[in-house]
Amino acid sequence: MFTADRLGKIPPYLFMTLRNKISEAKAKGIKVISLAIGDPVDPTPEPIVEELCKTAHDPENHRYPTDEEWGMKAFRTAVANWYSRRYGVPLDPNSEIVALIGSKEGCHHFALGVVNPGDTVLVTDPGYPGYKPSIWFAGGEPEPVPVKEENNFLPVLEDIPSEIAKKARAFYLNYPNNPTGAVATRQFLRNLVEFCKSWDIAVCYDNPYSEIVFEGEKLSFLSVEGAKEVGVELNSLSKSFNMTGWRIGMACGNPEIVKAIATVKSNTDSGIFNAIQYAGIVALNNCDSFTDQMLEIYKKRREKLLKALELLNWRIPPNKGTFYLWAPVPKGFNSAEFCELVFEKCAVVLAPGSAYGKFGEGYVRFSLTVTEQQLEEAISRLLSNLKGVAF
Ligand SMILES: Cc1ncc(COP(=O)(O)O)c(C=O)c1O
Fold first, then answer.
1. Which helix H or strand E contains 337, and what residues bound it?
2. What is the pTM of this model?
3. What are phi and psi of 125, to 5 degrees?
4. What is the DSSP code string of 65-102?
5. pLDDT of residue 14 exceeding 70
6. Average pLDDT over residues 237-249
7. For the residues 365-375, what does the mean pLDDT come to?
8. Of 10, 81, 122, 268, which sits 20 to 30 A from 32 (CA to CA)?
């Protein structure tokens, strides 16, 4: 009776049945291993934690954050230096960067800052489930753009009907991609800029996995000529520095869109705790080697899992980026049914592909963000208990 109509659009949680089963199993003392969530268990690098502790003691930082609309200038400068060093992208900290509490916030504020009620917004399917609710909250209508294995899970831009492109206001994309593990090529990004320019579509390029690339180029959307004219890139310290719980990220690029996001943000909250921003500066300035080490760790985990699953005859195309494996389910199951089977037989939780959109059906997602010990235990359970399944 008190709930606004807009919440009616949010679909029921697809994981609900599984979540109940997980709770029941845990209550019975069964040791459940979740490979369903992309939340690194590996700790944040020590220098970052130390900087937080040090700056948290300074009463100056106990007050509202300075420069609150856009984030601390020193943080924005660190973002600009990181983008220049890692991706060759020049950014003006004064007009092209706003600090966020993660790229998820950026997805939301982008919608409120760019999308008008009734607007069509393109979103890849399968895709990150956070996009659609943000679009609905802004009054927009998400329009799924299928991404398929035969096209390396990249959208085929020329297949988007012109009547849809014409009315589209914005396009949400994310490469390295959650959930498929696909990466974008420079040529694809060039085509994307051309396509969006020609149809006047604003790009929300969500890039929190920018550092996790095994095959292909580590790419920023903004490194492509003309990108700043059509869009912004969201990024985050969550995945690159094991900082998911800290809530810090950034939106960069087109000054008009950055300003729109900053306007929504400054009228929603009062900025990020300064001590977290100081810690973020240490991450961006001093932790490149940590990011590179994590990449090697994910690579090893990915190889271990792929090799093990081959013993079941389960052949999974290796993910080119991110810490997710996108695996086709065996014949005779849909993705939710197969997740339930794996849970019942192995007490291992996988994410059903259908949770990521209609075109995610037929797949399950593995996350490599568990400890080596958990991964080994999960592998051993899968190998022992899925022998009878015809992969
Ligand atoms: C594609 C994508 N975008 C955004 C997010 C949210 O990340 P953050 O922690 O930066 O808000 C995630 C988290 O899993 C994600 O996979």
1. helix 335-346
2. 0.96
3. -135, 115
4. PTTTTT--HHHHHHHHHHHHHHH-----TTTSEEEESS
5. no
6. 98
7. 96
8. 10
Q: Which of 110, 204, 211, 239 to mutate to test the pocket of ligand 1 (most atoms within 8 A of CB)?
A: 239
Topology annotation, domain 5-44+289-385: Aspartate Aminotransferase, domain 1 (3.90.1150)
**What's the whole-number average pLDDT of the chain?**
96
Q: Is the CB of 169 under 6 A from ligand 1?
A: no
38 lines ligand 1 (CB under 6 A): yes
Q: Which numbered atom of ligand 1 lies nearest the CA of 106?
A: 11
pLDDT at 13: 67
Pocket test for ligand 1, best of 98, 109, 221, 238 (most atoms within 8 A of CB): 238
Q: In angstroms, what is the span from residue 383 Cα to ligand 1's centroid?
A: 31
* Among the ranges given (19-33, 86-100, 239-253), the one the predictor scored with the smallest mean pLDDT: 19-33
Dump pLDDT digits (tens) for 145-174: 999 999 999 999 999 999 999 999 999 999
Q: State the DSSP code for 329.
A: P
Q: Which amino acid is at 185?
A: T
- As a whole number of Å, the CA-based R_g of the chain is 21
**Structure tokens belonging to residue 68:** 């609150």
- 55 pocket-lining for ligand 1 (C-beta < 6 Å): no
- Give the confidence band of 20 by pLDDT, cuts at 50, 70, 90: confident
Could you tell me how many residues make up the chain?
391
Our answer on whether the CB atom of 120 is closer than 6 Å to any ligand 1 atom is no
Instruction: Please choose, from the candidates 178, 207, 182, 177, the residue with its C-alpha nearest in 3D space to the C-alpha of residue 79.
Output: 207
pLDDT of residue 79: 98
The pLDDT tens digits for 194-229 are 999 999 999 999 999 999 999 999 999 999 999 999
Question: How much distance in Å is there from the Cα of 127 to the middle of ligand 1?
Answer: 11
Ligand 1 proximity of 221 Cβ (cutoff 6 Å): no
The CATH 3.40.640.10 portion of the chain extends over 46-287
* Range list for CATH 3.90.1150.10 in the chain: 5-44+289-385
What is the third-level CATH fold of 46-287? Aspartate Aminotransferase; domain 2 (3.40.640)
